[in-house]
Specification:
The protein has three domains: 2-65, Multidrug-efflux Transporter Regulator, Chain: A, Domain 2 (Orthogonal Bundle), CATH 1.10.1660.10; 73-121; 133-364, Rossmann fold, CATH 3.40.50. It is built from 17 helices and eleven strands. With 365 residues, it is of the alpha/beta class. A hairpin with a 5-residue loop joins β1 (28-29) and β2 (35-36). The longest helix is centred in the N-terminal third of the chain and has 34 residues, at 72-105. The structure holds S-adenosylmethionine. S-adenosylmethionine binds next to loops.
Length: 365
């Protein structure tokens, strides 16, 4: 028991207590006849301690680990999701704190509402306010999405945000979990339901098509969300990102030369092949036009000075997620290389290109 307590980082008293209340009972015996933890007991103890660390009460934990329909893999999946949610929440809180520190440093007053906002902040609740400055529909990307929607009449737009790429000529229902993003939808936009992709509140086959644009990488569980889309709609259209090719971070000079941290943000993201498989889709490249109207992360590949603009970066979640230090370094390096001509020298091949394949892909079933 002492050894297990030491490895798990809890007191022997805690283990006794779990034994007394029947939460984790050591079921094996040592050669001297003392009770000992079997591999199965250790697995259960690990689940109990992980849920406890996430703030669940003992009774809730007992219900969670006592559920016979949830096996070890399902528990790990659930714990992973809860931890990622925490991480996103922490990212959003850090972003909110940075904003408040910057405001205070400039001698600005911070309202009580702004102070409280930080506590309830989710990533898009924290950064969503800056979104509308540069994020809007690019007509060429919209045309490609519209072609992929085919003759669908009823469309579900998952992770809809403010409604870019939502077709106007079809019957659309939007799904968006962030209150800040929902609040920025125009009055004549499609009706929007507060929900997340992983658990869509619709019956099987309710829509002709479910679409999702530039959102899957934000989902707690992308594969579960994609399966949900497949469940509620007869077809699925998803604009996402390809990380299958080795060396993919080198496709775009911004990640190659200035922001290598971008790669680690997508380290856990499923492969394009796995996502395509999950919904039975084919993948089509989505070239980014040189004058892309939607200020997405790759939009300014031929207009590098745009990345030096604060309001441009604030509408791209990448910069919040890599953190202030990496952001400042990238901006400083790019500023220097634009001034010295080094950027132009390295990227001379881009000068005449009308569009670039930077890894955006449309999955279509
Ligand atoms: C980059 S925005 C894209 C919005 C819109 N689709 C567009 O193309 O402009 C990502 C959106 O995904 C939403 N989102 C984050 N987690 C989500 C989840 N689990 N399910 C559905 N949407 C989610 C965010 O709140 C945000 O509005």
């Amino acid at each position: 028991m002492g050894r297990v307590a030491e490895l798990a980082g809890v007191s022997v008293r805690t283990l006794h207590h779990y034994d007394d209340i029947g939460l984790v009972r050591p079921s094996a015996r040592t050669s001297a006849g003392y009770r000992a933890y079997s591999a199965g007991d250790v697995e259960r103890l690990r689940e109990v301690l992980a849920y406890r660390r996430l703030g669940f009460g003992l009774r809730e934990v007992a219900d969670l680990v006592g559920d016979p329909s949830t096996d070890a893999v399902a528990h790990l999946g659930r714990l992973r999701g809860l931890l990622l949610e925490r991480r996103d929440h922490a990212d959003a809180m850090v972003a909110a704190i940075d904003r408040e520190l910057a405001a205070r440093a400039r001698g600005l007053k911070v309202t009580p509402e702004e102070q409280l906002e930080m506590l309830g902040a989710r990533l898009y609740d924290a950064i969503g306010g800056a979104y509308t400055a540069t994020r809007r529909t690019d007509p060429r990307i919209a045309a490609q999405i519209s072609d992929a929607l085919g003759d669908a009449h009823t469309v579900l737009n998952v992770g809809a945000g403010t409604g870019s790429y939502e077709p106007r000529d079809r019957q659309v229902t939007a799904v968006e979990p962030s209150a800040v993003m929902r609040g920025q939808r125009s009055a004549d936009a499609a009706p929007c339901v507060a929900a997340a992709a992983e658990s869509l509140p619709f019956e099987n086959g309710s829509f002709d098509v479910a679409m999702a644009v530039s959102t899957v990488h934000h989902w707690r569980d992308p594969m579960a969300g994609l399966r949900e889309m497949r469940r509620v709609a007869r077809r699925v259209v998803v604009l996402t990102f390809d990380t299958d090719e080795p060396g993919w971070p080198d496709r775009f000079w911004l990640t190659r030369d200035y922001l290598p941290e971008f790669a680690s943000l997508l380290a856990e993201f499923p492969s394009l092949a796995a996502m395509a498989n999950a919904i039975g889709a084919r993948a089509e490249p989505v070239p980014v036009p040189w004058d892309c109207a939607d200020g997405l992360f790759e939009a300014y590949w031929r207009r590098p000075a745009a990345y030096l603009e604060d309001h441009v970066r604030r509408a791209m979640s990448v910069w919040t997620r890599v953190g202030q230090e990496a952001e400042q370094r990238a901006v400083q390096d790019l500023t220097a290389d634009l001034a010295s001509g080094r950027w132009a020298e390295r990227n001379s091949a881009l000068a005449g290109l009308a569009a670039a394949d930077l890894g955006l892909r449309l999955l279509i079933t």
